[in-house]
Design a protein that fits this description.
This protein is of the alpha/beta class. The chain is about 50% helix and about 10% strand. The chain is built from ten helices and seven strands.
Length: about 300
């Protein structure tokens, strides 16, 4: 049973039709908030609005591209006209880059990722703030990423945009404090959003995916939504300007690759410790005598 911490309040969730945004919209809606979903996916947006209303949540869907200022200004005007206030803004909308090598990334791709992920946060905040100022309070929560702090290869546009979100967060927190508006960012790690797609999908995760997290599993959108619900509530009124990481412990985990780490990973992946130990021994042999290891492996394969 959820609390009812947001009775009478209005929340705009960008990218709220699917994934983490949909989970946030649902959590805040079940806690009494009136919800405005903004998304470019009209089919998913209409479906999410219908789902929320079926759960007893007062909700609307507005198609909006957060990188388009006219769309954003129109979005905030519609929400205010319909509900009479904007109390909480969740800047969640974001897109991923192509994953191409740096020298193959186009300027158009860079601009689109930064426009949606970073400029969109600035635009939505800019046009929501005037309604928050009128009430003398408000909360802006920006969904960043652990990619603001660490990276995988070929994610330059995404990592840069999310790093910018974290910096923009503390800048706005200082600028807007005098108006009673709090601004925070959240950096999720690996979150599986399969169940929050339209239609929902089955997760495709391995034991190794879960096991490498100190917390023992990959994240769920509900994990992020629960944190958002706290940060957006009056219980967190002394928090502003900070970035909170929620990643199952991955960003603080040091990993040194050696045979022991490989054996443990194989044991989790194969669910067979004896086989994992045998493979470790093969690796140890290969370090000293690659030809012998190849012969041993060939003999094993021939017997299968």
């Amino acid at each position: 049973m959820h609390l009812r911490r947001f009775e009478g309040r209005v929340c705009v969730v960008t990218g709220g039709a699917k994934g983490i945004g949909a989970a946030i919209a649902t959590r805040l809606g079940l806690e009494g908030c009136r919800i405005a979903i903004a998304d470019v996916d009209e089919v998913a947006g209409v479906a999410r609005e219908k789902d929320l209303r079926a759960r007893g949540v007062e909700a609307i869907f507005v198609r909006a591209d957060v990188a388009n200022e006219r769309d954003v200004e129109n979005l905030m005007a519609i929400v205010y006209s319909r509900f009479g206030s904007i109390d909480v803004l969740i800047n969640n909308a974001g897109i991923m880059p192509s994953g191409k090598e740096l020298e193959e990334q186009s300027l158009e791709e860079w601009r689109r990722v930064v426009d949606v992920n970073l400029t969109g946060v600035w635009l939505c905040s800019k046009h929501a703030v005037k309604y928050m100022k009128a009430r003398g309070r408000g909360v802006i929560l920006n969904i960043a990423s652990t990619r603001a702090l660490q990276s995988e290869p070929n994610t330059e546009p995404y990592s840069a945009s999310k790093g910018g979100v974290v910096a923009l967060t503390h800048a706005m927190a200082i600028s807007l404090a005098k108006y009673g508006i709090r601004v925070l960012s959240i950096s999720p790690g690996w979150v599986d959003t399969s169940a929050w797609q339209v239609p929902p999908r089955e997760p495709r995760l391995t034991p190794l995916d879960h096991g490498q997290h100190p917390a023992g599993r990959v994240g769920r959108p509900e994990d992020v939504a629960a944190l958002v619900a706290f940060l957006a509530s009056d219980e967190a009124e002394w928090m502003t300007g900070v970035n909170i990481v929620i990643d199952g412990g991955m960003t603080v985990k040091m990993v040194y690759l050696d045979e022991g780490v490989l054996e443990e990973s194989l044991a989790v992946l194969l669910r067979d410790r004896e086989l994992a130990h045998c493979m470790r021994r093969l690796i140890e042999v290969a370090r000293e005598d690659p030809a012998r290891a190849k012969t041993m492996l060939r003999e094993v394969v021939e017997k299968l």
